[in-house]
Amino acid sequence: MVQKYGGSSLADAESIRNVAGRIARSQQSGAQVVAVVSAMGDTTDRLIEMAERVAGSPDPRELDALLSTGELQSCTLVTMALHSMGCRAISLSGAQAGIRTDSRHRRARISVVEPKRITQELGSGKIVIVAGFQGITDELDVTTLERGGSDTTAVAVAAGLGAARCEIYTDVDGIYTANPRIVPDARKLDELGFEEMLELASYGAKFPPQAIEMALVYDVPILVASSYRDGPGTMIHKEPRMSMRVGQIRNRVRAIATDANVAKITARGLADRVGLQADIFGPLAEADVSVDVIVQNASIGGLTDLTFTVERTDLAAAMEVTEPVARNLGASQVTSSSDLAKVTVVGTGMQNVPGYASRMFRALAEAGIAIELISTSEIRITCVVREDRLTDAARALHRAFELDDSG
Ligand code: ASP
Ligand code: MG
Fold first, then answer.
1. What residue numbers bound the domain in which 150 lies?
2. In a domain, 164, yes or no
């Protein structure tokens, strides 16, 4: 059994003992238990802040080593709490647990899990507590994964051990049709497909996309449930393609994601020629800036405009790279705006069924919300809107797609 406990469930001594108690009970039910833990409360944020105070922009290698200590604290403390309850348990750092990664600090990707030590400790009857969010490179440097990466560690460990599923325990009791802090009528979902969850995670749901990618590739079902209360949670799994969910006949939108961390850059008057896009986006990729929605206007008189979105936190870096390149390519103007947000509807049932986009645009229009950019996949429609209209947009769409009462 592979479980994961989030930072808010480990914020203080009492919470740590509560988690240890749950882990102990899981073992008493006869399972071999591995638990992956996040850093206590807002430890990671505090460590980043501290590093920035001493060094402005701290060296990524040193920062990763520092951040990894957050998860080391929680995994050793949970292990000690288990000992005090009479359980045999051992803590392992990411490196000790065999989590190997590439060398991209702050957003490393897990390349392979070598769970030899975990298997050995389980074999000797111990509960294994693994520090999440971290790994080690071939050069033995400590890395950290994308934020929230303990979920990724948990899925990787579950895949590496061939566990039947990965259980993620957190401060909410599952995945909702929308963020309940934004849409009060949001409803917990019983189940969700991997592809749907991947889109939701990529478009704002608080879940690292890499964890879902890995779950999809290795077919590891993920249960998201509360670490405080027993309940059925939400099962994220491979969907039987042809099944029609009860109550989903009218409406195939399953959930809405919102993301307020959005900015856009527009370059006007670019000389339209083969290779233009590669010339603009190549340097952004080198600068490790990921670009999302891209819109290019039809060219008039050999000139075209290009608009794209980046994470707002990447805007300064993106402008620094884009401005000189675009000017070189003849741009008359390079502008940016940072007060944007994305609202996204997701559902595998939308595939090949017309009418969803128009329904989305109609609902936003009726709420008086202007759409700045649009992007779609087979199971997703995203509209970029002004950030100050994000809440209204999410509520309007939740209503328009009847997510509060559909099954
Ligand atoms: N502690 C890390 C973070 O805050 C990883 C995690 O919480 O899963 O991003
Ligand atoms: Mg955390």
1. 2-171
2. yes
Q: Is the CB of 70 under 6 A from ligand 1?
A: yes
Is 44 a pocket residue for ligand 1 (Cβ < 6 Å)? yes
DSSP for 251-272, written as a single string:
----EEEEEEEEEEEEEEEEEP
Residue nearest to atom 2 of ligand 1 (CA): 148
Q: How many structural domains is the chain composed of?
A: 1
Residue 41 Cβ inside 6 Å of ligand 1? The answer reads no
* 78 occurs within a structural domain: yes
CA distance 69 to 65: 7
CA of 138 to the centre of ligand 1 (A): 23
* 158 Cα: distance to centroid of ligand 2 (angstroms): 20
pLDDT digits (tens, 9 = 90+) for 346-398: 999 888 888 999 999 999 999 999 999 999 999 999 999 999 999 999 999 99
Q: Which residue CA neighbors atom 6 of ligand 1 most closely?
A: 148
Whether 81 is in a domain gets the answer: yes
In a domain, 185, yes or no: no
Please give the backbone phi and psi of residue 129, each rounded to the nearest 5 degrees, phi first. Answer: -110, 120
Instruction: State pLDDT tens for residues 11-40.
Output: 999 999 999 999 999 999 999 999 999 999
**What is the helix (H) or strand (E) element at residue 328, kind and residue range?**
helix 315-328
